[in-house]
Write a structure and sequence with these properties.
Blueprint: H1 11-16, H2 23-49, H3 52-63, H4 72-81, H5 91-107, H6 112-129, H7 134-151
Helix pairs in contact: 2-3, 2-6, 5-6, 5-7, 6-7
Length: 152
């Protein structure tokens, strides 16, 4: 249909269509940009503190990805022991984050409601940092619903 001819739109092309960003689009763009900055900062800090396989493993555990950098032998070891799923960011990471935030908050004698609200905010922030893949978004939404149920 288009004979595989593509080009990148310039600012003038977009202005021709009089495209105006809404407030929600600007906010979404800002959130994505901020999440990218935080993710890059975390990757940099892990890279400075660790080396070799430990660095790649820490990056995979905290932020997801980096699987091809682990090497075949390490990946086989994770698969053999049944722990390969721990490398992909999903519900277990969100649940652990919520439990950690809630537990620390309760140790600091914060109200249950406050701990749950902070936990949900942290889960949403973490979801933005790790890229918002389907399992992470699903787990974040489920944690939001769970916390809403416990707040009342």
């Amino acid at each position: 249909m288009y004979d595989a001819i593509y080009r990148i739109a310039s600012i003038q092309d977009i202005q021709t269509f009089r495209y105006a960003e809404s407030v929600t689009v600007k906010f979404h763009r800002w959130c994505l940009h901020s999440g990218g900055i935080v993710r890059q900062s975390v990757e940099t800090q892990i890279g400075q503190q660790m080396t070799g396989t430990a660095k790649v493993l820490a990056q995979a555990l905290f932020l997801g990805g980096h699987y091809n950098e682990l090497g075949q032998e390490t990946m086989k070891s994770f698969a053999y022991t049944g722990l390969i799923h721990i490398l992909s960011i999903s519900g277990s990471h969100i649940a652990l984050l919520l439990a950690l935030v809630y537990g620390i908050g309760r140790l600091l004698r914060l109200k249950k409601r406050t701990c749950l609200i902070v936990g949900v905010c942290m889960a949403i922030f973490y979801c933005a940092i790790v890229g918002g893949s389907a399992p992470v978004v699903r787990a974040t939404l489920m944690s939001l619903l769970l916390c809403i149920a416990y707040i009342k």
